[in-house]
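User: Run a structure prediction on this.
Assistant: Running it now.
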Amino acid sequence: MAVDTLDTRILRLLIEQPRTSAREYARILGIARGTLQARLDRLERDGVITGTGPALSPAALGHPVLAFVHLEVTQGHLDEVGEAMSAVPEIIEAFSTTGGGDLLTRVVARDNGHLEDVIQRLIQLPGVVRTRTEVALRERVPHRVLPLVEAVGRAAGGVG
């Protein structure tokens, strides 16, 4: 899906001013509300926009410890382990990967003792051979997509 300069401007506004109304976005961009809505619908349909909910902070919810837990899984049990992991609320993301493990999970915990409990729960899942955990000390680059959006917009011939 091609993202053009106007799409880039729309996405920037959505990221920088997420609580603004569609009418106000259209006014800021100098386009008709119908044009804006058609663009938003296409960006959603094409999977560029994947959600509209609020971003929540696990730390503010009482889970300030962040760790990345790599799981090695017995061959043929990846789907089974993936399904079992969905029952662990402290896992906020999980990916199948190449390299030194089969799954990479992003895990949050109340403290280091709670993290150990979560890891022990993961180790006990049928099909999990071993885990390796890395605790995050400090976030250096927060989750972001805007620089990528701007690069895509520039590549499409516009100025982000």
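The beta strands are 65-73, 91-96, 103-109, 128-135.
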